[in-house]
Amino acid sequence: MYSGDHVSWHAPLDGTESRLQHMMLTDDPQLQQIQTPHGMLSFIQIIGITGEEIKATQHWNGPGIIELIKSVPMAGGPWLITDMRRGETIFEIEPSLQERVEHGIEKEGSNLSGVSGKCSWEEISEAEAHHLNGEENKENRLISGDRRDSSDIERPSISEIESEQIKLALKKGLSTTSSKGHPRGKNETLSEQLEDPSEQTASRKESFDSNGSTEGPTELTRTRVLEGVHLKFNMEAGMLIPLALRGRLKHGRHFTFKSVLNDVAVTLVSTSVLGSIADEQHPYAAHGPWLQVLFPDDFIEQLQDDLDVLTRQEDITLPKTFSWPERSFSITLVQDEMQ
Questions:
Q1: Residue 295 contacts residue 270 (beta carbons within 8 Å)
Q2: How far is CA 6 from CA 17, 62, 72, 115, 157, in A?
Q3: pTM
Q4: How many Cβ atoms are within 10 Å of 244's Cβ, its own excluded?
Q5: CB 105: neighbour CB atoms within 10 A?
Q6: Cα(first)–Cα(last) distance of the chain, in Å?
Q7: Residues 157-168: what's their mean pLDDT?
Q8: What string of DSSP letters covers 246-281?
Q9: Contact 15/21 with Cβ under 8 angstroms?
Q10: In angstroms, how far is CA 125 from the centroid of its own chain?
Q11: Is the pLDDT of residue 68 over 70?
């Protein structure tokens, strides 16, 4: 467990009707780190948060939301005390805090680099992509709109150091998301992993080199280029796709969905990410069960528009398929009991 991590629990933490139904982890404000014969020991405090607050955490970052909670005495104050009777979110108590979150997302993006959820992928041909976009989906699909050239879109750049950090995360792949997964509660369907600041220094020294060591399965060393892909997510995982686009890929970063059912993983990358096995000529590539999908700049903008409905769960009827036949790419959202 790391400071800044959060856990989607989807049930009142005290078994009542409390709005505090999720958890965030932070450094204990009183107990400092101590050095032991076995290394540094940190004390982590768990605090209760609302659904609106965990959504803000996912779309921006945990440390930022923790600071906002500290600034609101009714929500926890400097000692981050959880009062299960709290009936208002920090944004209802202090409406101006929502503007700070929105500004943070636009300026910094999200530091949530991946989630564990229910997801799968399969290779498809262009013809199959057209089939998914056919008459059987006409009541429940979106058709791709007008094309825009990437030169018309202003894009943020990333530093060389940030590029090295991304390459390290890609190199770790499945082993990283597996080793940091949280124990799942009976109502928990997603557990989130943040980029660990303690790894940043080491990451600057590593690169995504095929000769380098990896903790992942041996089959990850074999790369396949795919003609097209069909991604499947349960509702909760799918609702985070807009976050991946706005908070991660638009800022030159990557985002990974790791299956809780098996070793399948899907990493979405932008053209700014160095070290990906996918490139603009071959946007779909796989290392065993680990799929990497590269979205060019104009497609990221288009996906944001086409998938805006995912920000409004009440407008979605499952199963729902979004298809872009000209890119041999499709996404389907299915019921939570997907296998």
A1: yes
A2: 21, 7, 19, 11, 28
A3: 0.69
A4: 27
A5: 20
A6: 27
A7: 51
A8: IIIGGGT-EEEEEESSSS-EEEEEETT-TT-S--SS
A9: no
A10: 27
A11: yes
